[in-house]
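Fig. S4 source data, part A: sequence.
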Amino acid sequence: MSETKHLQYFKVENFKCFESFEMDDIGQFNLIVGDNNVGKTSLLEALLFDENAAQLVTNLRATYIFKNDISSELAKSFFFLKDFFFDFNISISFKFTVNKNKFEVKIKDQTALSKEEVEKIQSKNYNLINLISEYLCIYEDNNIKEIFPIRYNTSVVKNPPMVPHNIGYSSVLANIYSKEILEDKEKNRQLIQSLRIFINDIEDIKPSSEYIPKVSTLLVELKSKSKLVPLSSFGDGTLKLFRVLVKVMSASNQRLMIDEIDTGIHYSRFKEFWKTVLQSARNNNVQLFTTTHNLEGLKYFKEALDELGEEFQQKSRLFHLAKIKDGSIKAYNYSFDQFSSAIELGNEIRGRN
């Protein structure tokens, strides 16, 4: 892997709806379009891959909790991973090619572990007798790189690099802001300034645990009011922008996946929303993978890039996901010039009309 977790090439096999799927010439700012049920969200979930097995499991687990609104207790189980396999009953494994590195991820029962695998587990002082018997094994070019007992670390990562479309304000988000953004004065200044496209008289954001001890509630200081106003009382667009910016700023040098980025954003604000998110991603060196199914989301992506200029345009890509005749899914890559021309000519590049 490079210094960052940015991708130039990505391939996944045997994962959810993808028997084999690849993307090449990936940019820093990537918008993914396509018909309903073609695999846009599944692609974002595949991009949760991390070559560290523990991080991979916790990324998937935390996203599963957010997406399905279930308890963390259920997600501790091995069986939540079945939703991330192309064919769980036949092959409990999936493969990634990330840039030039190949990885195979397998789930193995303790009784199926080889002598080499057992020795590797013992070398980490795992207690084989007391552990549940499912293991996640990472292979790199057919050599074992890491073995991770799925239930060994039952803590759930609260800040996976994913923004599901159905998640708004939450105490978890407030705590991420308090821990990762508030203490960085420059990031906090940028965040407050960016929020002015929705809250034009915002002065500051202040966390408070007055209502629920040990849980941050975020309060907004406004020029026009003497009393602080809960951030949660603002509209969906404001909360969506806040969540996305907090996630971008806490994902420096990494990649971030945003599902249905247009959800909750009024069309009249969408161009400024795009500009704000793209500038924050550039400033924090974050690689974005976002999905949309609306024509407005695509048009305002183009208009934002028109105004941001050549630097952003060269780093932007549009990937159109489509099922081909054999039933597999292919990604068609458009540069800024290509998708800009298609939009101006009225060509449909999101999927079927």
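Fig. S4 source data, part B ends here. Residues 162-345 form a domain with the Rossmann fold fold (CATH 3.40.50.300).
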